[in-house]
Amino acid sequence: MNKIKKRRSFLVVSSLCFAIVISSVVLARGQMSKDSSMDFDSTSVLIDDLSAFQSVSSTWSVVGNAWADLYGDGQISTEPGTGIIVNKVSENQHGKDLVTKAEFGDLHLSMEYMMTKGGNSGIYLQGLYEIQLLDSWMNKVVRPGDNGGLYNRWDESRPDGNKGYGGRAPRWNVSKAPGLWQHLDIVFRAPRFDDDGNRTEKAILKSVRLNGVLIHDNVQLSGPTRGSLSGKETSHGPLRIQGDHGSLALRNISLTPLDLPGASDEEENRRITNPIYLEAKNNTVHRSFMDVADDYRVTRSVSVGSPEDIHYSYDMDCGNVFQVWRGPFLNTTPMWHSRGDGSARPQGGLTSFGYPVLSVAVLENSQSLWPTDTLGTGFRPMGYRMTKDDLPIFTYKQNGVEIHDQIGVLENREGLLREISTESVTSNLFHQLASASMIEKVGENLFLIGDHSYYIAVDSTEKPIIREDGGKYSLIIPLKDSIKYSILF
C-alpha cells in the first residue's frame, strides 16, 4: 500500500480520537479525573484502550489507521496507534460482542464506522434494539436487514417465512463502499415504566441519520429485536456492538445522555414550513445556485439526478464535478419557498470534492501548480447537449481545445463513470482526477481519496500521477485523446 500522507492527530472527536460521551467526568488512558477545561454539557471519555468495555475478546484492538479492500476478502489492514477500534475476525478466530460497562436510557449516539466487503455487524441500543451495519453498497432495494435498518424481531411460533417481524427498512440506501468511513447518528428514547415495572411507553427511535440522511423518523419499537441480550426491556442498558459476524472499524463514537419528552409534548415544535423536494424518477437536470465548501456559492451549477438514486453537481464555470451523493435528489425549498434565493441543496448522503477548480489545464510539466482560476487559460463554457437518455454532455474550450465531458451512473450502482475527450491533441494537457489532503494508491489504477472519502478507478493507458500541489495532494493524468474513469463512493 502506497500511503501518501498520514492523517493528523486531534484531541476530541477527530480522525484520530475515539470518544465516548457518558457523564460529567473525563476518563483518559484508563484514569478518572475532573477536567474543568473541557467545556462539555456531558462527558467525554477519551479512549486509547478498551477499558470502557466489559470483557473484551482478542479480536478487538485499538489502532492508528485502518483499511478495508474495496473488492477484498472481508479483512481489515491496520497500522499501530490510537483512535480507531477494530474487530478483526476470520474463519479460525470468531469474535465476540463489545459491550459498554456504562448503561444508558435516552441518548444521542454519533459514530463513524467502516465496513469490509460483505461485512456484517450491528449496534444494539440498550443491548436490545439493533440497528444493522452491513455492506449494502450496491443494493437498489433495501430491507430491515440492510445497512441502517431496524432489525426484525423473531418468534419461532410464527409460520415459516413470517418468523421475522417488526423490523423497518431504511427509507433510502445511502450506504458507502467498503473501506470508506460512514456516519451514523441516532436519537433514542428509552421505554417508560410505572412503579410496578409495567411498560407504559414504548421505546422510540426519534431519528436515525445515515451519512447525513434521515432514514428513520419517530419509529416506535414494539420490543427487543432478534439476538438481543435479553428479551426483557428496561429503562437503562449498555451499548452493544456486534462482533461475531465480521470485521469492522469504528471511530469518533459519542454517547450523550438525554431526557426526552413524550410524543405529545413535541407536537408544538413541529416545523410548519412544507419542504419542496425534487425527485429524480427519470434522468433529471436542474440548474440553480449551490452552496459548497467555505460558504462558496456556485452560481452556474447543474445538478443531474438519476432514478438509480445516484446524483452529481457540475460547475459550468470550471467544467468540473464538485459533489456527488446517494439517496433522494434535491431540496429546492430555498429556491421556491417565499421569495426564494435561487439555491438548491442535495438531499442525500453527500460526498463533497471541495472548492471547484478547473477540470483540465495546460501545465509546463507534471509537477507544475494547478491553476486556481480561469485567468489566462482561455476557458469558455459552451453549454451542454442532451443525449437520447436525457443526460447532458458538457462542452467547453480550454487553451483553444474543445473538450467534451460525459458522466453517467455505473450499471452496478457503484458510482459514476466519467469520460473526457478532446477534439484535438495538445501537448502538456492534463486532467485533475482529484485533490485532497490524502491520496493513496490501493490497487492497480485504484486510488483512495481524502480521509477514506471515495475512490477513483482509472481505465486508461495513461498513468495517473500523485503529486504535491499547494499544500495538498492531487491526482492528475495526461489528456491526449480521451480518458475514462469511475468515481466510487
Description:
It is a single chain. This protein has about 500 residues and is an all-beta fold. The chain folds into two domains: about 20-265, Exo-inulinase, domain 1 (Jelly Rolls); about 275-489, Beta-galactosidase, Chain A, domain 5 (Distorted Sandwich). It has one helix and 39 strands. Strands 29-30-31-32-39-36-35-34 form an eight-stranded antiparallel sheet, with no helix packed on it. It has a seven-stranded antiparallel sheet with strand order 5-6-19-8-13-16-17, with no helix packed on it. A five-stranded antiparallel sheet has the order 21-22-23-24-27, with no helix packed on it. A hairpin with a 5-residue loop joins β29 and β30. The longest helix is centred in the C-terminal third of the chain and has 4 residues, at about 335. The protein is globular, with a radius of gyration of 24 Å.
Would you count the extended β strands for me? 39
Number of helices: 1
Mean pLDDT rating: 89
Helicity range: under 10%
CATH superfamily of the largest domain: Exo-inulinase, domain 1
How would you write the strand order of the largest sheet?
A: 29-30-31-32-39-36-35-34
List the main descriptive attributes of the protein structure presented here.
489 residues, mainly beta, Jelly Rolls, Beta-galactosidase, Chain A, domain 5, 7-stranded antiparallel β-sheet
Quick structural gist:
The protein is mainly β. It contains one helix and 39 strands.
Reconstruct the topology from this structure:
Elements: E1 18-20, E2 26-28, E3 31-33, E4 45-47, E5 60-68, E6 76-87, E7 98-99, E8 107-115, E9 120-125, E10 129-134, E11 153-154, E12 164-165, E13 181-189, E14 192-193, E15 199-201, E16 203-210, E17 213-221, E18 240-241, E19 248-257, E20 277-278, E21 284-292, E22 296-305, E23 310-315, E24 320-326, E25 330-331, H1 333-336, E26 345-346, E27 349-352, E28 360-362, E29 380-386, E30 392-398, E31 401-409, E32 415-422, E33 429-436, E34 439-443, E35 446-449, E36 454-459, E37 465-469, E38 472-478, E39 482-488
